[in-house]
Specification:
2 domains; 4% strand; disordered C terminus
């Protein structure tokens, strides 16, 4: 009986760790590895963990213990993923007793996330940054900044509290687009499309999309497809919200406002301004995803480098956008894995944030607008381009994740070893 109770307690602690990881944006493989690491250290090797995108099944001790947990998909707090990941390695190193580990996990679980002001500022700077990334000028960025701040106030205090996920997603996109239309009607902002694209970027379901791809790459097909379905539902909610906004605006003003394709403002088109905008936007999303503060700059740099590489490949190397996205995604994922080793935290923190400049948020908007304005050929073409971009990101993530971890574990050693092989002279000493 004592052995069974000990086993149950160990598996309960492992389940708490898995619960925290799963509900805060960790990939399935990390959840399973962490739970196995904790249970194995405390002497329970009979534990079996089956993890889905919204549930954990735990069994152990030859069927004498079983537990099923439903874990709804909620907001992302990457700092908790980092803390639990670090704690699991500390446990494996023998730094925590079982009681101490349980107490520490409960403290992490109950810990407060980012303050409302931090999240509002993150949404504002994220909207402004990505408005510039997708071609907006300084005035457009200012309008997107205001809309992004107001949008997150609405999300935090209205839709996030009183509405379901689907209805809330539609209402968030509706509110963002209506605010953009109002600002444009009063002369605040020059390019309506760029302001809207920037404003809706905080709503893009990048986390389930990226994690879904990573789960598929790890052969977690059920979880991967579930998360990709969740991401697709998020895109549909955005499209519906934008559509309703344009229909309401058209009903009030006697016709839907006419847009003439994506514009690029010369004020922010330069490589420096583009990389700076990507840096700011990526850092802002690190705030929204609840990443640790010490990782903001690294995440921003990775996003900036990835976007800069994409621009260099498309502008100066005559490489198509699809191939450029694949190569940029590979570089982002590789830099994220290096940063994970250097900063001793999960690469998820950097991948989720750094990949956002490449996410086809503009494609979602233009597909919706052309569909509403009965420009079906343009709508189909834009949707196809957005789909190609999404597939390119998927391919890039899969390619980067296939590289062995030892390549990233000791990069300095590997570089020294390579240089030694290249420049060392063959020995002429004949002594045995």
């Amino acid at each position: 009986m004592e052995e069974m109770n000990d086993t149950a307690e160990v598996l309960e602690v492992a389940s708490i760790a898995g619960h925290i990881l799963l509900e805060n944006g960790a990939e399935i493989s990390r959840v399973e590895d962490t739970m196995a690491r904790i249970s194995s250290h405390y002497g329970v090797d009979s534990g079996h963990f089956f993890v889905l995108s919204n549930g954990i099944f735990t069994t152990g001790s030859l069927g004498r213990y079983a537990n099923v947990e439903f874990i709804p998909i909620r907001g992302i707090q990457l700092s908790k993923v980092v803390e639990v990941n670090k704690l699991s390695y500390d446990i494996a190193a023998g730094k925590y007793t079982l009681a101490q580990a349980r107490s520490r996990l409960e403290a992490i679980r109950d810990g407060a996330g980012k303050s409302a002001w931090e999240l509002i500022a993150g949404s504002a700077f994220g909207a402004a940054g990505f408005c510039a990334v997708f071609g907006g000028g300084f005035m457009d960025c200012a309008a997107a900044f205001v809309v992004g701040a107001l949008l997150y106030v609405f999300s935090l205090f209205v839709s996030g509290r009183y509405l379901s996920k689907i209805v809330g997603g539609i209402c968030n996109a509706l509110m963002a687009t209506l605010l953009c239309l109002v600002s444009y009607r009063i002369g605040f902002g020059e390019s309506l499309s760029n302001v809207i694209i920037g404003a809706i970027m905080p709503l893009i379901p990048g986390v389930p999309f990226v994690n879904g791809v990573r789960d598929l790459a790890n052969s977690d097909y059920i979880a991967g497809l579930t998360r990709l379905t969740d991401a697709m539902l998020g895109f549909i909610c955005i499209a519906l919200g934008v559509s309703i906004s344009f229909l309401l605006d058209g009903a009030v003003f006697g016709g839907m406002i006419e847009l003439y394709g994506m514009t690029v403002n010369a004020q922010t088109a330069g490589l420096f301004w583009q990389m700076l905008a990507a840096f700011v936007g990526t850092m802002a999303f690190a705030v929204l995803f609840g990443a640790p503060r010490r990782e903001y700059v690294a995440a921003g740099i990775i996003g900036s480098v990835g976007w800069g590489l994409f621009l260099v490949l498309t502008r100066f190397c005559s490489i198509g956008a699809t191939v450029a996205i694949v190569l940029s995604t590979v570089v982002i994922c590789m830099l994220s894995r290096y940063a994970a080793v250097m900063h001793k935290c999960p690469g998820t923190v950097f991948v989720l944030c750094g990949i956002f400049p490449l996410v086809p948020g503009a494609g979602v908007f233009w597909f919706t607008y052309y569909l509403l304005s009965s420009q079906f050929r343009l709508s189909l073409g834009t949707g196809f381009v957005a789909a190609k971009a999404a597939i390119a990101i998927v391919l890039g993530i899969i390619l980067a994740m296939e590289l062995p971890q030892r390549f990233f574990s000791r990069p300095v050693f590997l570089c020294k070893s390579l240089l030694r092989r290249l420049f060392s002279r063959p020995s002429t000493d004949t002594r045995s």
